[in-house]
Amino acid sequence: MRTVAAFLATVLIAVPAAWHALDADIQTDGPATRPKQETLEVDGARVTVELDRGLLMAGGTLKATLVATSETPKKISLDVRAMEDMGYGEERVQNPPLQVGRRKITIEATPQGTSTEVAFKLGSRGKKGVVNWYDIEVSRAGKPMGVVADDGEPSSARVGAATWSGNTFALAIEPPAVIPVEQNFTVAVRVTNTTKKPLDWLEIDLGGASLGYGDLGGSLYLNTPEGAGFTVERSAETFDSDEALKPGESRVVHYDIIPVAVDGPKTYTLTAHAHGSGGGALEIVTLKATPAPDQPAPAVANTCKPRRWGALQRGTRCEGQLMRRLGVLGGIAAGLVASALIIAVGGLARGNVRPSSRLVAEDASAPLSRIAIHYAPGNDRVALPVWRELFTTLPATIRVDVEVSGARDFDRLLQRLRAANTPNLDRLHMVVVGQPITTWSRDRYAALVDDEGRGSILAPPRVETPFQKRAGDASSPAAISHAVYDREPAIANIVFEGGDLAATPRWVFADANLAARNAGRTASDRASIEAELHRRLGQDIIWLGDTVGDVPRHHIMMYMMPIDDQTIAVGDVRAGVKLLATEPEGADLALADSEAEAQRFDHAAGQLTAMGFHVVRVPAVVLAGAGSYVTYTNALFDRRGDQRIVYLPTYGLPALDAAGTAFWEGQGFEVHPIDVSSIYQLNGSLGCLVNVLQRS
Fold first, then answer.
1. Which of 88, 200, 402, 632 would bridge with 660, disulfide CB 3.0–4.6 Å?
2. Residues 6+ away with beta carbon under 8 Å from 60
3. Which residues are bridge partners to 464 per DSSP?
4. 173 has which bridge partners?
């Protein structure tokens, strides 16, 4: 009876005192999002930089506290800049940040530490539903930002914060009536369309108080900070509809809040962000855990510890508590759940539920039969030379599906190819997307094939982007899926770009960059992502890198390529830089930190070697900026009979191009060079321009 009474008290009676929303607004809870402090060494003094908050309303003031410490007192001069992140252009070139404020200060470093405060007013209240990101960067006065000194130490410290311009529709974080101590609970995130137009698409995210910003779409990431004592995971039962949200309608997504600290956190700061075709909304709440009526505060740490059940079931279970609270019926229900799990796991072990679909292989294991490209007339200057050379070189039997905004664009492409005497134009087939698009077809989706040879498209959920063409790219998966397979694409439960994955018939390769792309959007840990990949794909997963920065921060084929199921080609930055030094044409190329990049490539090579793969190295160069590579792994692979073929990107750098050609010839490939020198400094190469749909 006590269990029933507690249940009724929890479900039927409002208990507002049982949880406390400590001013659920950005102005008050903004300090809870404060990022971790960063440090800078200047003339033997240590300077720490800390912001008073990680989120503020646009037009508000962000305060940075600098503390200078030195064994002996000394004065140091510093530049403090506020830099607005300007995102990426439509074709993936990073726009330079905009300086919106600058202070030059002199501070005396002392053994006890001397502090000073610098404030910047950031942003302005304009269009609602907009997030902007600002970095407060501190450097030695007169020195450029972001430069690595001769001793390997960075010359500046950078800490970031976001501004929010206000909600365009209603959003609410709805906790349960009781926030239990040391136990899981579920919160709902409710979005209500208070506008007069349908929200054609909508993404809803919940995370902790740590914010991030990045990737090509300019998205806000919601993370749970280290040491918070809990994790946030989307409930396995929740379903986030892809249908438009009509005016007046609401949509609810549930999230599990899982304590992981020994004693359990006493407060939970949660941030929700919803964005869609009609703008966005953002909300923060801080919840206080309170013992339930039948749950006295424990005198000692709860010995019933959380246990992860992986992708099949998330959360914690304590058999004794379960039996006490639910009695015999609860025990029966638990037994049924356990039996179902045993059956499911047994089925997995026998291979009965292994997916029949596989990611179409990138290697030369089978002949190319069908590829897809994007044609955007505005990029004729940089992309058309590649298309002319590629279509002249490819066998006439390979079908090419050309995704275009409208029929006039397809006619324009044919006209320009005819003018260049490009052969076999009858194998080009129009696919109308109906929206402006970019050149990069590989980013938009992954092509699958099942055991019967039937193809399909796997698409990511829609991601917010400030650029019209990047937003139009989101319509590409549906357009190609309808045109080629006469069906809707499948929508993955993880955010990805096609370039995040590479495959052979046996393996699918992914890396830590994929986890970073999902941070704040879905479950972003490796186990959750691998579970989703296993649910979709019949290949085994090979994971590279444990954290962002372990491996190169780009699409995976930009730095590695599986030649077959046993042999992997990985770029070699040191070899590439050595060759570049002999290139007169390369004298004007600005390089990234080559040693740091070389270590990332080496880390990937070392991991693959440790897994038992045969790793071979091919020269590569990483340019400064957002990710332009001279790479000979981001290629297009084919097979005719027993002869393996590579359509190899070349860069107008003779020594490097010769080394790339020699490498693939040494692996037994017939090499057909494709000049990408017109486009590669837009952060992609040949493999980014072409999406392989089918191999025969």
1. 632
2. 27, 121, 122, 123, 163
3. none
4. 189
- Kindly provide the b/e burial profile for residues 671-682, where b requires at least 16 CB atoms within 10 angstroms of the residue's own CB: bbebbbbbbbbb
At 465 the pLDDT is 60
Interval 23-29 mean pLDDT: 66
Whether the CB-CB separation of 573 and 603 falls below 8 Å is answered with: no
pLDDT at 182 over 90: no
In 351-475, where does DSSP find H-type helix?
A: 380-393, 407-419, 468-473
β-strands 98-109, 74-84 pairing: antiparallel
- Tens digit of each residue's pLDDT (9 = 90 or more) over 498-544: 999 999 999 999 999 998 888 766 667 898 899 999 999 999 999 99
pLDDT of residue 305: 34
Region of residue 641 (phi > 0: left; psi between -120 and 50: alpha; otherwise: beta): left
Is it the case that residue 299 has pLDDT exceeding 60? no
What string of DSSP letters covers 314-382? -S---HHHHHHHHHHHHHHHHHHHHHHHHHHHHHHHHTTT--S-EEPP-SSSS-EEEEEEE--GGGHHH
User: How far is residue 325's CA from residue 329's CA, in Å, rounded to a whole number?
Assistant: 10
Residue with tokens 């990985």, as numbered in its chain: 570
- Please report, rounded to a whole number, the percentage of residues in the chain having pLDDT higher than 90: 62
User: To 5 degrees, how large is the angle CA 50–CA 56–CA 58?
Assistant: 130
Please state, in angstroms and rounded to a whole number, the distance separating the CA atoms of residues 625 and 602: 21
First-to-last CA distance in the chain? 66
Provide the 3-class DSSP secondary structure of residue 440: coil
Asked if 169 and 248 count as a contact pair (C-beta separation under 8 A), the reply is no
- Read off the amino acid at residue 25: D
Q: Indicate if the pLDDT at residue 303 is higher than 80.
A: no
Question: Residue 203 above 90 pLDDT?
Answer: no
Quote the percentage of the chain above a pLDDT of 70.
Answer: 81
Give the chain's length.
696
